[in-house]
Amino acid sequence: MADATDPILPGGTLGILGGGQLGSMFAAAAKRMGYRVEAISDVADCPAAIHCDRLRVGSFSDEALLARFAADCDAVTFEFENIPAEAGRALAGRVPVRPDPEVLFTTQDRAREKTFLTRHGFACAPYRIVGSQDELRRAVAEIGLPAVLKTAAFGYDGKGQRKLLATVDVDAAWEALGAGPHGPRQLVLEGFVDFDCEISVVAARGVDGSLASFPPSRNAHANHILDVSSVPAGLPQRVLDDAVAMAGRILEALGVVGVACVEFFVTKDGRVLVNEIAPRTHNSGHLTIEACETSQFEQQVRAVCGLPLGSTRLRSPAAMANLLGDCWTHADDGSCRDPDWAAALAVPGVWLHLYGKREARPGRKMGHLTALAPTVEEAIEKVVRARRLACRG
Ligand code: AMP
User: Fold this and answer.
1) What's residue 1's pLDDT?
2) Which of 165, 194, 213, 334 is nearest to 273 (CA)?
């Protein structure tokens, strides 16, 4: 293995655990910079297949597969936190894994993540970790209602979540989320935050400990899934500075080498509370591709390779709108009609990104649109209009 401080230069091979759109956009950035890219995915027909030199299809628990992958790569990263931390650990003795698999381990489980935040004094919503119906009832009595109940593991985009409004909801919520087929699951009960808005900070930390944060983005969700992100976030500078400073301290405390995103609730009195941490690039950072001097994906390549981090300066106000599978229309004969891309692209200053997913299912992230404009309000108006034109209403 090369010395941990030697940069991995173009010509080297970068490995990605996972084959989704984040891996695909990382691979595109790495290829443009002259790297070879390999990925492991459990499906052949995945977005990363488009940009990778080699896709290894198999299980993340296949040790022989991991050994062959490690032998080919100069550094490995992961594109999604639901990759088993064990796979990262199995690779770590053979090839630099950035961020360290222990970062993945901490952040892929809400209970561990919340414990980390509390231990380091990072403000978040009041919460209790519960493992039984009785513990849930006690937690509700302590935290109060409304509250949000979440599975500790394998939750994202609102999956494995329930809002609790009244005590009558509590037992049903335990049945739905906690009473797993193989015994009780660990859950996290969070106090409901009556927030002013949600923002996120995508930040990178280099091998040498240097930090670079992208400007915070304001995030609007629909059905718990990110809908529109926009920058600048239009909040007082002090709030933005607090979020950027806290994100930097979180990356330092976790020991991240790579990119991570910290999502925050901004309370009505201007405090920032951590919602969750993603130890990777993030959907809310997609607009950096067009709007910033360095994209979040190039930044990930730079950080993982031990290169200097790039400038995160915002070149223009920008907005990003997700394209979910709901945008595709299914006819009675089973055929599927694509959105009207020509109509969307007739809006000047709009970029289309499609991830190459074949099946358009409701709620599935199929692509996104980004718009740049002189003001953030115009950028939002443009990207939403382009999406409406594409999705015919
Ligand atoms: P999460 O998967 O935890 O990021 O939750 C998805 C979305 O649900 C968040 O972006 C919020 O819009 C909403 N949400 C989650 N937890 C809370 C909470 N404790 N209070 C208010 N809204 C929440």
Assistant:
1) 57
2) 194
pLDDT given for residue 334 in this prediction? 80
For the segment 204-248, what is each residue's pLDDT rounded down to a tens digit?
999 999 999 999 999 999 998 999 999 999 999 999 999 999 999
In this structure, which residue's CA is closest to atom 18 in ligand 1?
192
Judge whether residue 393 has pLDDT over 90.
Answer: no
What is the value of pTM for the model shown?
A: 0.96
| Of 90, 31, 99, the residue nearest 60 (C-alpha) | 90
Query: What would be the CATH architecture of the domain defined by 195-390?
Result: 2-Layer Sandwich (3.30)
Rounded to the nearest whole angstrom, what is the distance from the C-alpha of residue 224 to the centroid of ligand 1?
Answer: 7
Which amino acid residue places its CA nearest to atom 15 of ligand 1? 148
Count Cβ neighbours within 10 Å for each residue of 48-72 and write b for 16 or more, e otherwise: bbebbeebbeeebebeebbeebbee
Please, are residues 309 and 206 in contact by the beta-carbon 8 Å criterion? yes
Give residue limits of the domains in the chain: 13-97, 126-191, 195-390
